[in-house]
Write the C-alpha cells for this entry.
Amino acid sequence: MGQLNDPLDYWLCFLENGATLDADALPERLDRPEQRSALVVLDMLVRSELEREKYEARLRDRLEIETLEELRDEPRRDCETALEQLEDQKWILADIIRDQDMIRCEKQEALRKGEEQRLAYAEALRERKEESILLDFGASRTGTGSAGKSGPTARRASGATETRACRTHPFLPSNHKSTGSRT
C-alpha cells in the first residue's frame, strides 16, 4: 500500500486489495467514508445468495423500524403544533377580552359623564324654574296701591291693571307670548 497521495491512488489501492480488506479493520490510509461505503457494496457482491437475502431483510427491517418511529413521533409533533397554536389563540383571545373590557369601561365612563351632564342640565332647569316662580311671586307682591297697601288687593283697590311678564311657553310657537292682565 505504498504512497497514497491523491484520490485516484486510494481507489486503485482499494480495487487491488478490496477482497482482502476487512470493514472493521481498515488500514488508516483507507479508512475514509467513500472507501467504507464501497467496501459494504463489495462485501454484498461477494456474499452468497442466502447471505445477501439476510442482509437485505435486515436493511428492510431497519427501514421499517425507522418508518414506524417516524409514524410514532408524528402524532406527538402534531400535538405539539396544536398546543402551540392553542397557546397563540389563547393570547389572541386574551387580547380581544382586554380590548372589550377597555371598550366597556370607556362606554361606562361615557355613560357616567352623560348622566352627570343630564343631571347638571336638570338641576339648572330646576333652578331656573324656581327663580322664575320667585320672580313671578315677587312681581305680584311689589306693586303699591292706595293707603300704603301693597299687593293685589291694593292694585284692585286703586283700579290699576297688572300685566304679567311675558314668557315664552315651551308648548307654544316661539313668536307667541303669553300675557295676562288683572283688574
Notes: Residues 9-46 form one domain. The helical segments are 7-17, 33-46, 49-141, 152-158. The beta strands are 162-163, 181-182.
